[in-house]
C-alpha cells in the first residue's frame, strides 16, 4: 500500500527536528511525514522485525488531527505531528503490554504510561510498538511471541537489548525517535549496537511506571529503571528528552529540575575511563575513545586518564540488588518465559553466585544498598573535579546473536563486557551512548557520564563528538 506521493517519499530520512519545523511552518504535513515512515516500515520491517505492531490507520488519523491544528493556528507542541515508536513493555492505551511474553498478548492497557503520555502531550504521533526480549531482561531482542529482531548492520549480530526493536527501527529509518527504557543498558547498548544515540537520564528525570496499575514496584525498579529516547542525532535526542521529562504523579521519584544548569567552569575537565579491571576494551573501542578524547580536546575540553575502581564494585552490586529482586519473579519466568529467557536467567545467577553465593541473605541485600550509597557519594565527589566521564559503552562491538545462551562462560564474557551497563544504573547518574565510526562493518561508539540532572553537559559534549563521527544512518538492512 502506498500512503503518499513521490514528493515526500524521502521524509523518513529527515530528523525529528526538521520534521517538526516543516510541519509547524507548513512546508510539509504530518500526514506526509507519517505516510513516508509507514512506507519505509513496509519496506524494511519485514526484514528486521523491529516493530511488532504498526498502527497505520490510528497514526494517520492522529496526523490529520495534527495538520488540522496547524491550519487552525493552535499553539503547537515541540514534537507536533512527528512519528515515534513506543516499546511493548510500557502501557499504551488500547494496546497490549506484552513485554515479549506469549501469556501477556491480550494484556490490553487502559491508559498510557507516563513516557507514552508525555510523548503524546508533546504532539508526537505513535506509529508502532517496538520489540523487546521476554521480560525485557536480555541484551538480545528475541522472544516466542514476536520473534527475533535483527540488527540492520549485520543480521548475525544483536541489535542490542532490551530496546533492540527501537534501535533497529530508528537506525533503519522507520521513524526518527524511539522510546526505550534502561535498568541494565537497555537504551545505551541498543543505541551503540545499531550506530545511533541514546540517553539514560538521571533517575527521577523522566517519569515512568513499570509495575501493574494497582501493584507495587521492586526496590531496584524504583531506584534504577528509567525511560529514555533513542535517535539518529543528538539534537533529536535532546528534543525527545525534554519532551519526555514532563512531570507525572505516577512516578515516585520524579523531580522537576531545570533542563539547563549553570555553565560549567571552563576549561571543562573530562576523565577518560578505559578499564576498571573487569574487561579490557577491544582495539576498536579503544580507538573510539582515543578519537573522542582528541575531538573534545580540540573543542577546548581537558581530557585526562582516570582510574575509578568503584565502577567494578557497582557492576558486581547490580548482580545482587537487581537479581535478588528478579529472583522473586522467577516463578513467573518459569511458568511463562521462553527457553531463551529461562536459560539466560540460569546463566545470570550461575555467574552472580561467584560474588554473592548461591542464595544471598537479607543481610547481604541490606548491606548492598548501604554500600550503594557510599559508591554514589564517591562518584559524586569525583565529578566535582571531572564533571564528565568518557568511557566505553561496551568493551566490544555488537555481540553475535544469542551469545548469552551458549554457556555460563559465554554469558560471563557478555556480562564483563557490559560492566558500565550495570554499574551506572546502580549509581543513578545520567549517561548517553554516542556513535563514532564503523569498524569491520559494525558500529562503534563511546559513552558519556555526567553529574546528576546535568544531561545538558552531556548533550554539549556529544555534539562535539557527533560532528566528527564517521557513521551515517538511516541505513538499509544488510
Automatic annotation (TrEMBL):
Keywords: Ligase, Transferase. Belongs to the amidase family. One of its GO terms (molecular function) is ligase activity. It comes from Halalkalibacter krulwichiae. InterPro entries: Amidase, Amidase_CS, Amidase_dom, AS_sf. This is Glutamyl-tRNA(Gln) amidotransferase subunit A. The keyword Lipoprotein does not apply. The keyword Transferase applies. PANTHER family: GLUTAMYL-TRNA(GLN) AMIDOTRANSFERASE SUBUNIT A, MITOCHONDRIAL, TRANSAMIDASE. Its EC number is 6.3.5.-. Residues 32-458 form the Amidase domain.
